[in-house]
Amino acid sequence: MTTLATFLSTHASVIRVALTRVRGSSPRNAGTEMFVAQGGLFGTIGGGQLEHLAIERARAMLVQGDLNTTMDVPLGPEIGQCCGGRVELALARLRQADRHTALVRAQAAQDAQPSVYVMGAGHVGRALADLFQHLPVNCVLVDTRPEELALCRAGVDTKMSVIPEAEIATAPAGSAFVVLTHDHGLDFLLASAALERGDAVYVGMIGSATKRVKFRNWLRDHCDGQSIEDLNCPIGASGSRDKRPSVIAAFVVAEVMAELTSETVAAVPKGEKGAPRKGEQTDRTGRTA
C-alpha cells in the first residue's frame, strides 16, 4: 500500500487540498486532506463531484504555477451532490518544508491509530490481517509458527513469538485483540490475558457457543473471579453462516471497527456481549483459523 512518503518522493510538484471548514452534512470532517499531483493522488476528501472539482483545480494550479487558493463549495444540486452542507477548501503547493511537516503529521496520525492484534496466522487470521491493512489501525499478526507467518501477503506486519501472551501484555491501552490460534488451550490463555488487562476496546475469540461455555468453565477453574462478559465469542456473530475465511474475516473486521470507531461503548447487557441470537453463528469452531 502506497504511503505518503512514497507518494511525495515520486512527485516533484504536489498540491495539498485540506478541508478547512464544514457546515452541515459533508462526506468528510474538517482537517481531512489529500495530495494531488499531475499523475497521481493520495488520500481523499470524500470522493464524488466535490473531490473531482478539487482535483481539477489543483492540477490547474500545477500547470499555471499558482501557489495557493481557496474554494467554497455547496454540496447540493449545483454540483450534483445531495449532502446538503457546505465546505471550504484550502489548496496550497507544497514547499520542501511543507513536505516535511506533512510527513510528520502523517506519522503522528499513524502512531495515534488504535492497535489490533490478530493472534493466530491461520486462514482466518491471514484474511483479517489483509483487510486491516487498508483501515486506519496498526495491525500486527502474531503466531508461534514461522511457517504460517511466511504465507502472509507482502505488507502485513507479522510477529513470531514463542510467548504470544507477552505481546498482549505489552500492547498499548485501548487495543483490540482477536484470538484464533490453532489450539483451543492457547486460545483460552490468550483470551484470558486480553480480558485481564481491563483496558481492551475489543476482545474476541473464534468459536461456537459451546466453546464460549467451555471457556467460562476454564476461567472458573484457572482464573478465579475473571469475567467472560466482555468477550465476543462467537466473533462476527451478526453475519451469515458462511464459513469461508474471507467472509468470516469481513464480518469480524466490521465488528472490531464498530467498537474502535464508536464514541461511546454500545449499551450491551452484561453477560450477553458476543452471545449469538437464536439461529445465528452458533457453529463456528475456528478450526480453519
TrEMBL record:
The keyword Manganese does not apply. Residues 266-289 are annotated as: Disordered. Residues 116-256 form the XdhC Rossmann domain. Keywords: Plasmid. It holds the Pfam family XdhC_CoxI. Gene3D superfamilies: NAD(P)-binding Rossmann-like Domain. InterPro entries: MoCofactor_Util/Proc, NAD(P)-bd_dom_sf, Xanthine_DH_XdhC, XdhC_CoxI, XdhC_Rossmann_dom. Residues 270-289 have a biased composition (Basic and acidic residues). Residues 12-65 form the XdhC- CoxI domain. The keyword Zinc-finger does not apply. It comes from the Bacteria. PANTHER family: ALDEHYDE OXIDOREDUCTASE MOLYBDENUM COFACTOR ASSEMBLY PROTEIN, XANTHINE DEHYDROGENASE SUBUNIT A-RELATED. This is XdhC Rossmann domain protein. It comes from Pseudosulfitobacter pseudonitzschiae.
